[in-house]
TrEMBL record:
InterPro entries the UniProt entry points to: ARM-type_fold, TRPC4AP
UniProt lineage: Eukaryota, Metazoa, Chordata, Craniata, Vertebrata
GO biological process terms, semicolon-separated: hair follicle maturation; protein ubiquitination; ubiquitin-dependent protein catabolic process via the C-end degron rule pathway
Any single Gene Ontology cellular-component annotation: cytosol
Name of the protein in question: Transient receptor potential cation channel subfamily C member 4 associated protein
Length: 797
């Protein structure tokens, strides 16, 4: 998601900034107290004692020091601002002073965010620094919050124009001066109050931008149910405001990440879940529920996400927003890029849009425009892209939340999927023009580009929408649904119930559904494209769950298997992420499907190709183990069938012949157990544990479990480390019991994906963990006493 950088990310450290400041102004001592005034102010700011504001100095003293230190008169202006902003003031003079201060700070902030600046990280920004140091930030917070104070039962009021100036100055200070954003984030009552300023269109953009930056550094997530009249506030937003508001929502509905890798381990996640159960819903979950309770909220998001460019805001209002962007620095880089696009197209079309310098405008507040000029189409498209990627992110998070089924019903009802299908070619996956928007310091292929971000967000949404949900068939059109029915009829198998239950009025229209369009662009994607991972994940999510022969054949007929094998074998893909997503997709596509194995054998038709394929599998079992699992399960099923078509595939397929060999299975089993440990288990590599269990469950079915355990013991001894593997496996299985026996979703996924009842999974694990050393199927029977280490606490190490 494209978001404004947090103030904490800019500039030097606090110590270096302070040192550079003192050096720049030639540290001096003077009255009213000896020592350096700036350092004393900084100390007072940190401790809350001593010198903290300009009002603690006389105007004469400040004027005298300003001559030496070149403070641009800011301390004196703050002194006047304090005097004219008391409770009984009419604020007229106060606003005039703000008008004087604002340009002094905006010039520095513009220099900070624009490419033209030739400043190092060590450079300080004297005006914003001095403004904050002499108490300007705290004073503006007090001024903004004056309406919360009642005098004789009446609320104080300040004008929108004055609020706008205060917000602009605060944001500029946050941009240039380290620590200001964090200090504002600690003022929870102020953060909540800021939401009320979004009721005015005049102050909405400035307020939203400041809130977004503050929430980006806030340690504790804000609760939206504490915002006064949230439902009314959001309901009164126009579509443009709602889209911008989604930038704030992205921070408030996503679970906070501590940045600690340990938090991503299953051990840590389980501990966090236990803690969460005792604490109740998280702030993110509360915020999601608050939004979903707002009438029409999801419907409006769906309309924004599927709105065509021609339906977006007219030229005049868009130019008004661009002018605000020009003076509002959060969007300076975006606007700069948009203006370059406009200029390139204008030169080509002999038309122009003339933007005034900051502050210059016509009487109606709009930039000067030629009467025969229309807003360039690329500008309209980019405007819509910037909105849609924020909206899609919010919808995606809601789809993964506790109210998933409720959100699914709503976005199906409001036709999000067919709407996105209609936008696919012209907006979502449009061809890049020569002047496609690129942010400073990036290129068209960079993931920071709005075009790229929109595509990735779109693919993430499809993945969340399709994953283990019957609404996935809305990705097809009526003709494609009929094709699924025909595939089932020809194979003489029952139609999938979810296909029969799909509401045909909610599916995609046109010649192709969204899934088919995705397959088409997927096959054309360049080898080095970062989209390959997301595309494969989105398509794989369509196949997840109970295996559907009709779904597989639908994709096989469109050449998906050959495309995957080309990427793995012929292009010799090097990206681990892409390889993992392709192996996972290939496994789901081939599982239990004889036709898929025939197609595989037809493509991998030489020993050389097969060796390349095996090399890719063996290069990282964490990435390829899901394919190994699917082939192992398929082999077991095929071996129990007498159909001639199956017999033929078993006799010809190199992959099935390779997996059928006991030494191959033992090699996989040994490595799968060896590359994981309880302390390092994550959502990504826990599949290695489940794949090893699948191999042993199938061995148990054939009464060969003791044989496999004996072979593991021998392999241990051959490595000169007796007990190290089986002890590790014992601990992993103990964790498996704790993890899966209390999580219905995970156990259901295991059962559906393997077609092995979960009771058989549990029984096999219990047999392996049997403490009886006389049991031929118990792990302890194969660990010699001196090397036994099976009772270690999971929290150790």
């Amino acid at each position: 998601m494209a978001a404004a950088p947090a103030a904490a990310g800019f500039g030097a450290s606090r110590a270096r900034r302070a040192a550079a400041t003192v050096a720049a102004w030639g540290g001096w001592g003077g009255r009213p107290r000896p020592g350096n005034i700036l350092l004393q102010l900084r100390q007072g700011q940190l401790t809350g004692r001593g010198l903290v504001r300009a009002v603690q100095f006389t105007e004469t003293f400040l004027m005298e020091r300003d001559k030496q230190s070149k403070w641009s008169g800011i301390p004196q202006l703050l002194l006047k601002l304090y005097a004219t902003s008391h409770l009984h003031s009419d604020f007229v003079e106060c606003q005039n002073i703000l008008k004087e201060i604002s340009p002094l700070l905006s010039m520095e902030a513009m220099a900070f965010v624009t490419e033209e600046r030739k400043l190092t990280q060590e450079t300080t920004y004297p005006n914003t620094y001095i403004f904050d140091l002499f108490g300007g930030v705290d004073l503006l917070v007090e001024i903004l919050m004056r309406p919360t104070i009642s005098i004789r039962g009446q609320k104080l009021k300040i004008s929108d124009e004055m609020s706008k100036d205060c917000l602009s100055i605060l944001y500029n200070t946050c941009v240039c001066t380290e620590g200001v954003t964090k200090r504002l984030a600690e003022k929870n009552d102020f953060v909540i109050f800021l939401f009320t300023l979004m009721t005015s269109k005049k102050t909405f953009l400035q307020t939203a931008t400041l809130i977004e930056d503050i929430l980006g550094v806030k340690k504790e997530m804000i609760r939206l149910d504490e915002v006064p009249n949230l439902s009314s506030l959001v309901s009164n937003f126009d579509q443009q405001q709602l889209a911008n508001f989604c930038r704030i929502l992205a921070v408030t509905i996503s679970e906070m990440d501590t940045g600690n890798d340990d938090k991503h381990t299953l051990l840590a996640k389980n501990a966090q879940q236990k803690k969460s159960l005792s604490l109740g819903p998280s702030a993110a979950e509360i915020n999601q529920a608050a939004l979903l309770s707002i009438p029409g909220f999801v419907e409006r998001l769906c309309k924004l996400a599927t709105r065509k460019v021609s339906e977006s805001t007219g030229t005049a209002s868009f130019l008004q927003e661009l002018e605000e962007w020009y003076t509002w620095l959060d969007n300076a880089l975006v606007l700069d890029a948009l203006m370059r696009v406009a200029n390139e197209e204008s030169e080509h079309n002999q038309a122009s849009i003339v933007f005034p310098p900051p502050g210059a405008s016509e009487e109606n507040g709009l930039p000067h425009t030629s009467t025969r000029t229309q807003l360039p189409q690329s500008m309209k498209i980019m405007h819509e892209i910037m909105y849609k990627l924020e909206v899609l992110y919010v919808l995606c998070v809601l789809l993964m939340g506790r109210q998933r089924n409720q959100v699914h019903r709503m976005i199906a009802e409001f036709k999000l999927i067919p709407g996105l299908n209609n936008l696919f070619d012209k907006l979502i996956w449009r061809k890049h023009s020569a002047s496609a928007l690129v942010l400073h310091g990036h290129n068209q292929n960079c993931d920071c580009s709005p075009d790229i971000t929109l595509k990735i967000q779109f693919l993430r949404l499809l993945q969340s929408f399709s994953d283990h949900h019957e609404n996935k068939y809305l990705l097809l059109n009526n003709q494609e649904l009929n094709e699924l029915s025909a595939i089932s009829l020809k194979a003489n198998i029952p139609e999938v119930e979810a296909v029969l239950n799909t509401d045909r009025s909610l599916v995609c229209d046109g010649k192709r559904g969204l899934l088919t369009r995705l397959l088409q662009v997927m096959k054309k994607e360049p080898a080095e494209s970062s989209f390959r991972f997301w595309q494969a994940r989105a398509v794989e999510s369509f196949l997840r769950g109970t295996t559907s022969y009709a779904d597989q054949m639908f994709l096989l007929k469109r050449g998906l298997l050959e495309h995957i094998l080309y990427c793995i074998v012929d292009s010799e893909c090097k990206s681990r992420d892409v390889l993992q997503s392709y192996f996972d997709l290939l496994g789901e596509l081939m599982k239990f499907n004889v036709d898929a194995f025939k197609r595989f054998n037809k493509y991998i038709n030489t020993d050389a190709k097969f060796q390349v394929f095996l090399k890719q599998i063996n290069s990282s079992l964490v990435d390829s183990n899901m394919l190994v699992r699917c082939v192992t399960l398929s082999l077991d099923r095929f071996e129990n069938q007498v159909d001639m078509k199956v017999v033929e595939v078993l006799s010809e397929c190199r992959l099935l012949a390779y997996i059928s060999q006991v030494p191959t299975q033992m090699s996989f089993l040994f490595r799968l157990i060896n590359i994981i440990h309880v302390q390092t288990l994550t959502q990504e590599n826990v599949s290695c544990l489940n794949t090893s269990l699948v191999i042993l469950m199938l061995a148990r079915r054939k009464e060969r479990l003791p044989l496999y355990l004996r072979l593991l013991q021998r392999m241990e001894h051959s490595k000169k480390y007796p007990g190290f593997l089986l002890n590790n496996f014992h601990n992993l299985l103990r964790f498996w019991q704790q993890h899966y026996l209390h999580k219905d979703k995970d156990s259901t996924c295991l059962e559906n994906s393997s077609c092995i009842s979960f009771s058989y999974w549990k029984e096999t694990v219990s047999i392996l963990l049997n403490p009886d050393r006389q049991s031929p199927s118990a792990l302890v029977s194969y660990i010699e006493e001196p090397y036994m280490d099976i009772d270690r606490d999971f929290t150790e190490e």
